[in-house]
Design a protein that fits this description.
The protein has 529 residues and is an alpha+beta fold. The chain has two domains: 2-261 and 509-528, Periplasmic binding protein-like II (D-Maltodextrin-Binding Protein, domain 2), CATH 3.40.190; 269-502, Dipeptide-binding Protein, domain 3 (Roll), CATH 3.10.105.10. The protein is 26% helix and 25% strand. The strands form five sheets. Strands 1, 2, 11, 12, 13, 14, 15, 16, 17, 18, 19, 20 and 21 form a 13-stranded mixed beta sheet that branches. Strands 6-7-9-8 form a four-stranded antiparallel beta sheet, covered by helices on one side.
């Protein structure tokens, strides 16, 4: 299995088009603009509005975090030049000197304090950042470039949390609304690019920040076009309308691999795709009915036997082969391979339709039932095909899945409102405890838990294990406790992992991109050859 994964990760694939940009590896590119085709639409330029991948990836162009994440997933210095844990609950950060915001003002500890307090004040967030900040009990500005952060209890994962919270200018954003960021008025960061224009649903334009503290971007100007349709995005690359795209359609790779004028980068990522289940839907819900459409008297997903049956009814190997063209690997848990809390001994659920039907009969559903199954149709690799394949598999155990797909921007608020019986979701995180806290931890706004637990699953023992991992005194103890937490969640079938997807980027042959474990497309990490 590991050898196969390494082969997938290192495979080089050639694509075809014409080359129009002449560049030098040692000099500035001859063409000043890089045009990228993005597969997902960000919901806002406010870096604290929604903790979703499209927003996080875009925010990284304009803003920095205290701690950055490199392409392989390691924590590296960002606006914090260094950090140290002074005691069980106190961290001291030495901030990077000489950093300027895009408006020329100096970056100081005051901006950090403001930025870490701001997520709790952002209204109507569909994916709040408070899960990353709620453990902070107090902050002390020692001097303009030294900050001490105290947590409410021992909490070593603070460094990971801070990698997800971008720092904004307290002057520019003091009274700013989310719309002020979208207009550019408050989009004042320290990042490698400066805001130029944002056309919702169309494009984001940015200009290189010549005063950036880190490695300067290779391009003077970047236009990120939002092209959610796979065929349209590929066509834009082939026609020269864009220089690079993310999420190359899997079905198109074989016919393009013979021509070396294009290059593709492919790698496994930390994103796990899974089916989130609606544990909290009321009795007589329209999302669970008998085959004739009459609402069931009780929510069937409250019975663990039903949840196990749905899992046994998923042929994950076939799902990967047929619906995903091999661009994925079956998953047994809600954490990426090799990350904190990942258990290499965990086995992918065996496809067992007979066992699934038996469990349904024991639970009182010998004839099965109907369930509303939802998925986005423009976010993940072949996401709508995955949903249709799940429905076909479930039909073999007597479950009639009514598939509903829609654009991600429409999907997220409906999902968060609990408008489905089951829904496809993807999540990437550096640790099982981080992910479980957000996806399956009992909803507690005061703690910042359960921000994406739309199915309202709640298990006090799981909460206890998650907190035990987050506050573990050592890396070994955290790993062991996080594994136990994940094992408990999987044994209870709180959510149903399906697969890890492979990320792909297609680009002109004169460009190079390392690819990232988080699947983000960073224009400042694209290099001319």
């Amino acid at each position: 299995m590991q050898a196969t994964r390494r082969t997938l990760l290192t495979a080089g694939i050639a694509l075809a088009t014409t080359l129009t940009v002449a560049t030098s590896a040692m000099a500035q590119p001859a063409v000043a603009e890089l045009k990228i085709g993005l597969s997902s639409e960000p919901s806002s330029l406010d870096p604290h509005f929604a903790a979703i991948a499209a927003n996080l990836a875009l925010s990284s162009h304009f803003f920095d975090a205290l701690v950055n994440v490199d392409p392989a997933g390691a924590y590296v210095p960002g606006l914090a030049l260094s950090w140290a844990q002074l005691d069980a609950t106190t961290f001291e950060f030495k901030l990077r000197p000489g950093v300027k915001f895009h408006d020329g003002s100096a970056f100081t500890a005051e901006d950090v304090v403001f930025s870490l307090e701001r997520p709790a004040k952002v209204l109507n967030s569909p994916g709040p950042f408070t899960s990353y900040t709620k453990m902070i009990a107090s902050m002390q500005i020692v001097n303009p470039l030294t900050l001490r952060i105290r947590t409410s209890e021992p909490y070593a994962p603070l460094i990971g949390d801070l990698s997800s919270v971008y720092i904004v200018s307290h002057k520019a954003a003091a009274a700013a609304t989310t719309e002020d960021f979208n207009s550019g008025k408050a989009a004042v960061g320290t990042g490698p690019f400066r805001f130029v224009a944002y056309k919702r649903g169309e494009s984001v334009t940015m200009a290189r920040n010549p005063d950036y503290w880190g490695e300067k971007a290779a391009f003077e100007r970047v236009t990120a076009r939002i092209i959610t349709s796979d065929p349209a995005r590929l066509a834009a690359l082939l026609s020269g309308d864009v220089d690079m795209i993310e999420n190359v359609p899997p079905a198109d790779l074989p016919k393009l691999k013979a021509d070396a004028k294009f290059a593709v980068k492919q790698r496994a990522t930390w994103r796990t795709l899974f089916l989130q289940l609606n544990h909290a839907a009321a009795d007589n819900s329209p999302y669970f009915t008998d085959k004739s459409g009459t609402p069931l008297q009780h929510n069937p997903l409250k019975d663990v036997r039903v949840r196990e049956a749905l899992s046994k009814g998923l042929n994950r190997q076939a799902l990967v082969k047929v619906a995903l063209d091999g661009f994925a690997m079956p998953a047994a848990q809600l954490i990426g391979i090799g990350l904190v809390g990942y258990n290499a001994e965990a086995k992918v659920e065996t496809y067992d339709p007979e066992g699934a039907r038996k469990l349904l009969a024991e639970a009182g559903y010998p004839n099965g039932f109907a369930i509303t199954l939802a998925a986005p149709n423009n976010r993940y690799i072949n996401d709508d095909e995955v949903a249709q394949a799940v429905a076909q598999l479930w039909s073999r155990i007597g479950i009639q899945a009514k598939v509903v797909t829609m654009p991600m921007a429409t999907y997220v608020p409906k999902m968060r409102n609990g408008e489905f019986g089951a829904a496809l979701l993807g999540w990437g995180t550096m640790g099982a405890d981080f992910g479980l806290r957000t996806l399956l931890g009992s909803i507690d706004p005061a703690k910042g838990w359960g921000g994406w637990n739309w199915g309202k699953y709640s298990n006090p023992k799981l909460d206890e294990l998650i907190m035990g991992a987050l506050t573990a005194p050592s890396a070994a103890k955290r790993q062991e406790t996080a594994q136990r937490a994940m094992a408990l969640a999987m044994k209870d079938y709180a959510a149903l992992p399906t697969h890890y997807q492979l990320a792909t980027w297609g680009m002109r042959a004169n460009l190079d991109y390392a690819g990232r474990i988080d699947e983000f497309t960073f224009a400042h990490q694209v290099k001319p050859k």
